[in-house]
Structures are given as C-alpha cells and as structure tokens.
Design brief:
The complex is a heterodimer of chains A (448) and B (332). Chain A has one domain: Orthogonal Bundle (ABC transporter involved in vitamin B12 uptake, BtuC). With 448 residues, chain A is an all-alpha fold. In chain A, helix 15 packs parallel to helix 17. Chain B has a two-stranded antiparallel sheet with strand order 1-2. In chain B, helix 1 crosses helix 6 and helix 3 packs antiparallel against helix 8. The chains are: A mainly alpha (448), B mainly alpha (332).
C-alpha cells in the first residue's frame, strides 16, 4: 500500500515537472496552490463520503460560504456603511429575526400544554408566517437603504487567517444546518437536499448585494503573505516576485493541508475512525452496540464542511477576487467528486492525491484541448472543409466531457480509486488485502 | 377585472406551462426510480439533449428546403423523441448496465449519473458552444389574444402557441401513459416490477425488457419536456440543469416511483413557484388612493431571484411532514 502511494505521488510530481517545463514556474506554483486548496476540499468530502457514506452534492455551497467569509473578515471596513443608519436598521432586522425564531420555537413547544394536534399545527404555521412577514418588513427597507447609501456592508479589516478560520466556521455552521434538516433522509434524498441547499446559498450570495456585493464582485481580497507587488519593492525582478510570493502562499497552504491530513489520519486510525467505519458499513449493527449513529454522522458532516469551507476561503483569497457567478456545479461540486472517487474514497492520502492530480489534469487539459482543436481545424481546412468555429470556447468544454468519462470509467474499472481504502484486519500486517479485495465485487467498504 | 386577467396571464399560464414541463420530467425520474431504485441525476441533461436533438432534426428538415408556417420543431419532435429514447437506452447499456450487472448499490449508479451528466454537458457544449439558440429564426411565435366583451376591460387574455401545445401535449401524454400502464402487457409488467422486482421476475416477467422500456419512455418524455421548455424560453446548454432540482422535488413530493404522483407534484411545484413570485400588490392597485402609505407596491411572497428556493422549501416540508409523498411511493 505504501509502495502504491509512493508510486502514484511520484507520478503526480512527474506530471507537475512536465507542466513546469512547458508552462513556466510561476504558472506551476499557482497551479500547485490551487491544487493544494482543492486537495483540502477533497479531503473534506472524503470525511463526509469516505468515512461516513454521507452524500454531499452541495460542495459548491460550502466552498462559496468559505469564500464569502474571507471577504467579510479581511476586506477593509466601509466607513459609508458604519456612519449611516445601516447598522441600526440591520440590527433591528436581526432582532426581529431573533424574536421570530423565539416565536417559532415557542410554537413547537406548545405540545407541553396538551392542546389538540391541529391547534399546534396551526400555531406552528402561523408562527412561521408571522416571523417571515415581520422579518421581511424589517430587512427589505434596510437592504434598499444600504445599497443606496453605502453600496455594501464592507469587511472587518481583520487578518486573512482569521478569514480562513471563519470560512471553516461558517461552512461548518451551514453543515450543521444541513445535517440537522437532511441527515435523516435516505441517500438519494440527501443528495437532492444538499444540491438544493447549495443552490439556495448560491442564489443568496449572488443576490444579497448589500452583504456580498453579489455580481459586482469583491476585489482585491488581501493575501496572508506578501503579494507579488509587495515583493517587487524588495528589488526582486517581476517574474521572480511571482514565484517568491506564490511560493510563500504555497508553503502556508501546504502547512494547513498537512496539518489537516495528520489530524485526520490519526483520527481515522483511532477508535473514532473505527467507529465511523462501523457506522458507515452497517449502521444497524453499530446502533445495536450502542453507537449514537445520528450524532456521529452529524459530527462527520460538520467536520467535512469545515475543511471544505477553509479550502474555499484559501481559493478566494488566492484569486484575490470573490465573484459569485464564477461558482458552477461542474467546477465546484462534480469535480470534487471526481477527485475523491478517482483518488480513493475512504483514504485520506487517496483523496488528497485525487484532488491534486485531477485539478492539474483539469487545468492542463485546456491548453492541450486547444492545441488539439487547432490542429484538427487546420486539418479540416487542408481537406477543404471549413475551420472549426470558436475553438477557444469549445476546447474548454472538452475537459467536462473527459471528466465525465473519467468518473464513469473509474466506477466501472477501479471502483475503489487509485489508492483504495486500507482494510485493516486483526492479523497485522496485511495491507495488501485491501487491494486483493478490490478484485471482487464491491462488497465491504467503502460504498463505491 | 383587469387585475384578474393580469393574474391569469402571468401566474396561471406560467404555472401551467412550467408545471407541465416539471410533470413530464418528473414522470421519467419517478419511473426510473420505481424500476431501478436510483435517483437518475442526469435526467435534466437528458432533457437538454432531447431539445438539442429536436433542434438538429429541425435544422436538417429546413435544410431539405421544407418551410411551414408553424415552427418545424413540431415536425421534428417525433424523430427527436425516438432519437433521445435510443440515446437513453444506449447510455444505460454503456454506463449503468455494467454497474448493475456487477451488483453495485444504487448509490454507485447515482454517482455514475453525475458522470453521465458531465458527459452530456460536455458533448452539447462541444458541438453547440455555450450560447443560446432559438427555434424561431424563420417563423415567429404566434400569440393568441382573447379580448373579453366586458365594459372597462383593457387587458386581453394572452398566451403563446408553444404554451398551448405544451399543455395539450402533457394531457395527451398523461392519458396515453395511463392507458399504457393499465391496459398493455408491458405497462402491467412495469407496474409489477416497480412493486416487487424479485417477485415479478419469479413470475416470468422479463426484467431486462422492462428496464429497456422504462429507459425509452423516460428518454422520450425527457425529449418532449426539454423541447417544450426550449420552445417556451430559449435553447441553451444549461437549460435543464437549472430545473433538475424542481423536477426531483416534484417527483419526491408526488411520491417517488409513482408516475401519477409525479404529475401532481409537477403542477404543485409549478404553481407554487409562479404564485410565490407573483406580485400580489397588483390586486390592491385600484384601491391605491385609499390605502395607507406603508403598504408596499410590490407584495410577492418571495423575491423573483429566489424562485428556486420555493421548490426546495416544498421538498423539505414534504419530506418532514409526509416522507412517502402525496401518493404513497416506493420506499427502498
């Protein structure tokens, strides 16, 4: 197993070396930073899906929340907002929301009074309606006022790393919400529910201009390390400054990634991880021996969400721009799934490798596809056909097709991924068993 | 009266149209779930594929030099339905059947359907680019206007030709499906397989054939729904991807595995969406002068940008209150 890991990781580094040869060092360092952030996101999905067998088709929402968190924390404050009536109006809206929440909770506690069921139901529905209407009467004028007077709320001018941490926190909050509502659902339903929540988050962030600036985009988001412009002031040439600054950034991201891997690896090997696998593989049996299945699954979902949120925050602050319309299900949900499945669900190192490898292939396939198409087009002209129109926009789409085939073929021929989950038995050491069992049909863990 | 007509034109017609599209899509999702027990996530993209199939066929027909007063899409539709059904069958053969034969869990098929989604999206974008297309390059949309012979009514009841076609076709499909499922041998076999696949197989029903028929019906309906949607709005690669969530909501609310439930669910979601974003303030407009100032001019239940949330909220409420759906659907 260790040999297998080393082999595939070396393959990854050889690919990176090739990229460096053709595309130059600054590009490669940028690619590696993004790949590391995606690896962190894939690790988060691996915690949810690989450890727990929990569907999350809403990765996009968590990535986006992480990105928003960075802008909310690290952007400079907006004096126009703080000097206007905005904070006061927003505060009132928040108070109304709190009062509404109390009302709703109260309505749900009515069963203590022993009233008939239909009165309770009516009271609950009424409470929801009253809370919603009251909130709308407060928030609507506040939104109009803020957008007119100040544009948007602005950030808090805090260090970027607090933004990253807040991204993890906010995403795990969202994860808690999703888990509370949806984790009781069967897998197919959970998949649909998570898509729905991600789409709602996307719609909210895109349209809440007063809070996120929506489609107007936020930039420049600050870096936690000196930016290339800052490095240039130290008498470094321009190409080198990019390498130095991005290299520093890469070091920081790798630090976060390695810390996450170490923690998860340790947790996975310990009693906690064993319990999680037991729940995943047979939750009825796990429940029968006294494990709190619901609470543990909630824990996993929240933990995975936190990693995804931090990854999203890292991506946004690296890109220096937060553009809600740049988030697409294909790039930020399905791609992550390809990473985890190709890498090996249930294996942390596999998910991380999948994250890096798939992201590099995803990015590099764009220029490759482009040159392929240009070649084909020239060939077509030589035979006497018309050249292929708008090559650039089409060749970009080539990679979506390729990823689709990758996921389908991986499921069919290597359902456990490049680095399959290690199945430990009591007779140590027998790591090779993990690979042997892959030959059979997909009994045992993980679910794919 | 003017307000009532405005309400009809903007809320009822759009609810009916989008509800029909949802219903047609949800029937397919529901049938597939009933027989194969997995949520076919690529269904939305199958709809887009169907719409593009119609687009190509109608381009070919007009390339032959035929020109008609109605859009050629209507003539191209039967061919495109057949093509999409064939495509659905071959997708099953290529991607899902090998996994099923290996004895993979339904969850694996669900993940595989993400792959199929990406393949279809990639193919469409590769061949048609990311821009939008229209079926109305040569002919224009016929708009029907009915003026009511009542004093003081200025607005006319307005709807377009594709909107009528959508609703009529959906009714026809529902009747045909009903007849198929209750009268024909294949339909009865499908119902039996949906109730209990093992028992059906034991009593001599050819499950493989049932699966094939299911894919053909689902693919054909997807093509129909996609084309209808593209006729009503425009044809673009992410056409159906945006409505896959409401379609699943419709299928789940109606009861998964239950085709009639899917129809009810489809219209329920369609009307809920159009009524939720409708500006109810319209009805207060004649009394504008008597009303106090604090009454806003725009009273809609949710802002238009959050239309998508409506389907989702209904889905969650349905799952919490009645998880089996309106009509009791399959549970496993």
């Amino acid at each position: 197993m260790i040999r297998r890991s080393i082999f595939f990781y070396s393959v990854f580094f050889v690919i990176v070396l090739f990229v460096m040869l053709f595309m130059g060092t600054p590009f490669t360092v940028r690619l590696l930073v993004e790949a590391a952030a995606f690896a962190l996101i894939a690790l988060g999905l691996n915690v949810q899906w690989g450890y727990g067998g929990l569907f999350n088709f809403g990765v996009l929402g968590f990535v986006m929340v992480g990105g928003f968190a960075v802008t909310a924390m690290a952007m400079p404050t907006n004096p126009d907002f703080w000097q206007s009536d905005g904070p006061w109006m927003l505060g009132r809206a928040i108070l109304t929301a709190g009062a509404g929440a109390l009302l709703i909770i109260g309505a749900y506690r009515l069963n203590r009074l022993g009233w008939p069921a239909f009165i309770r139901r009516t009271a609950q529905v009424l409470a929801w309606i009253i809370a919603y209407v009251a909130f709308r009467t407060q928030i609507d004028p506040a939104v109009v006022y803020i957008e007119r007077e100040a544009g948007w709320v602005g950030g808090l001018d805090l260090p970027v790393w607090i933004g990253w941490a807040f991204g993890g926190l906010l995403a795990s909050g969202l994860g808690l919400l999703v888990a509370k509502v949806c984790l009781g659902l069967r897998q197919d339903y959970l998949a649909i529910a998570t898509i729905g929540i991600a789409e709602i988050v996307r719609a909210l962030i895109k349209n809440m201009e007063w809070l996120t600036r929506g489609t107007l985009t936020v930039s420049p988001v600050p870096w936690p390390v000196p930016t290339p412009q800052l490095v240039q002031e130290w008498d470094v040439s321009i190409p080198d400054s990019f390498i130095v600054a991005r290299g520093l950034y890469l070091l920081l991201v790798l630090l976060v990634l390695i810390a996450a891997i170490l923690v998860m690896q340790r947790a996975y090997r310990g009693p906690w991880g064993r319990m999680m696998r037991a729940i995943r593989d047979n939750y009825v049996a796990a429940e029968a021996i006294g494990k709190d299945v619901g609470a543990r699954q909630l824990q996993l979902f929240v933990l995975g969400s936190a990693f995804i949120g931090i990854g999203g925050a890292i991506l946004t602050s690296f890109a220096q721009i937060f553009d809600p319309s740049a988030y697409q299900p294909i790039n930020h949900t399905f791609l992550i799934w390809v990473m985890v499945i190709v890498g090996g669900a249930g294996n942390n190192l596999g998910a991380v490798l999948g994250g890096g490898l798939i992201y590099v292939i995803w990015v590099v396939s764009e220029p490759i596809g482009q040159s392929l198409f240009t070649g084909l087009s020239e060939l077509a002209v030589q035979i006497g056909w018309a050249p292929i129109p708008d090559i650039n926009s089409r060749s970009v789409q080539m990679r979506v097709l390729v990823m689709g085939f990758v996921i389908v073929l991986a499921l069919r021929f290597a359902p456990r991924g490049l680095l399959p989950e290690l199945l430990q038995t009591r007779m140590e050491p027998s790591p090779e068993r993990g690979i042997d069992r892959e030959e059979g049909n997909d009994r045992g863990s993980p679910r794919i | 009266m003017n307000e009532a007509i405005f309400f009809f034109n903007n809320a009822i017609v759009s609810g009916l149209v989008i509800g029909s599209v949802y219903a047609l899509g949800a029937i397919g999702v529901s049938l597939i779930f009933g027989i194969l027990r997995f949520a076919h996530f690529a269904h939305g993209d199958m709809m887009t594929m169907g719409a593009f199939a119609t687009f190509i066929v109608s381009l070919l027909i007009s390339g032959l030099g035929l020109s008609t007063s109605v859009p050629i899409a209507y003539f191209a539709l039967p061919i495109a339905v057949a093509l999409t059904a064939a495509a659905a069958l071959s997708f099953d053969k290529m991607f899902y059947a090998p996994l099923r034969n290996r004895g993979a869990k339904p969850v694996t098929l669900l993940v595989a359907s993400i792959g199929v989604t990406m393949i279809i999206q990639g193919l469409i974008r590769l061949f048609f680019g990311t821009g939008s297309h229209t079926f109305y390059e040569e002919t224009s949309k016929t708009i029907f206007q009915i003026r009511l012979p009542i004093e003081g009514v200025r607005r006319a009841i307005t709807f377009t030709e594709p909107q009528v076609v959508i609703v009529v076709l959906t009714i026809l499909v529902v009747v045909a499906l009903r007849l198929f499922l209750t009268r024909s041998r294949f339909g009865k076999a499908m119902r039996a397989a949906s109730d209990n696949s093992d028992l059906a197989e034991a009593s001599g029903i050819n499950i493989k054939q049932v699966v094939r028929i299911t894919w053909m019906i689902a693919g054909g309906l997807a093509c129909l729904a996609g084309t209808m949607l593209a006729l009503d709005v425009t044809l673009k690669p992410d056409l159906a991807f945006n409505i896959v969530l409401p379609i699943f909501a419709a299928a789940i609310v109606g009861g998964l595995g239950h085709p009639y439930g899917a129809i009810i669910g489809g219209y329920l979601i369609g009307f809920a969406e159009s009524l939720a974003v409708f500006n109810w303030g319209i009805f207060l407009r004649p009394y504008r002068d008597q009303l106090p100032d604090w009454v806003p001019a725009n009273i809609s239940i949710v802002p238009t940008e959050y239309k998508l949330t409506v389907a989702f909220v209904i889905l969650i409420v349905a799952l919490l209150v009645r998880p089996t759906g309106i009509l009791r659907g399959s549970t496993t």
